[in-house]
Design a protein that fits this description.
With about 190 residues, the protein is of the alpha/beta class. It has 5 helices and 12 strands. It has a single domain, classed as NagB/RpiA/CoA transferase-like (Rossmann fold, 3-Layer(aba) Sandwich).
């Protein structure tokens, strides 16, 4: 049996290969379907303050989602990497409030308003892979696990359907999501363990 680190690396490589086979047309269509599905689910409708990651090219396009949330008059908050282990949360009012930052990810400029994590109603989080138990495999830096460790509000993982796999290796410090939204379905995670 593979150790957890090796298993995670293997999953990351497999998902990366599947992602490369995804055509631009398929990706755009999936992004549009995920956006439509996400903005109509009750967790989003009932949230006033939403924190969303800003997507990289191989991730579900959150720029469309952020724009839709702003049009719905939601307060939108985006993380900014401050150090090797810390992210701060900033309110944005337009995508123009973002600029390339650490890891070439769009982040809020330093001119924005810092938002206390306790005021966030819902988090939209990235992942390389998810399973139906809500386990999430990130890029391995642990930013979201540290940020969300003691946060009880809903966390929605966005994924293309091929990123939902049978099992994601996980540890006690890994933060699980409440729901996963793909282009084909919304998976609500049962907490009756």
């Amino acid at each position: 049996m593979l150790d957890s680190h090796t298993a995670k690396d293997s999953i990351r490589k497999g998902i990366t290969l599947a992602n490369r086979r995804f055509t631009p047309h398929e990706r755009k269509r999936a992004d549009d379907l995920i956006t439509k599905r996400l903005i109509h689910i009750p967790l989003i409708i009932n949230a006033n303050v939403v924190c969303s990651y800003v997507s990289l090219p191989d991730e579900v396009d959150t720029k469309k989602i952020i724009t839709a949330l702003l049009l719905q008059k939601k307060t939108v908050v985006v993380p900014k990497v401050i150090s090797k282990s810390v992210m701060s949360l900033y309110k944005i009012t337009t995508l123009d409030d973002l600029a390339p930052g650490v890891f070439h990810i769009l982040e809020p400029r330093n001119t924005g308003t810092i938002v206390p994590i306790s005021t966030i109603d819902l988090f939209i989080v990235p992942g390389i892979a998810f399973d139906r138990q809500g386990n999430r495999l990130g890029r391995g830096r642990g930013y979201y696990d540290r940020l969300l460790r003691d946060i009880a509000v809903p966390k929605i993982g966005l994924a293309y359907d091929f990123q939902v796999i049978a099992e994601v290796p996980h540890s006690s410090y890994d933060v699980r999501v409440t729901a996963i939204v793909t282009e084909l379905k919304t998976i609500k995670i049962s907490r009756g363990e």
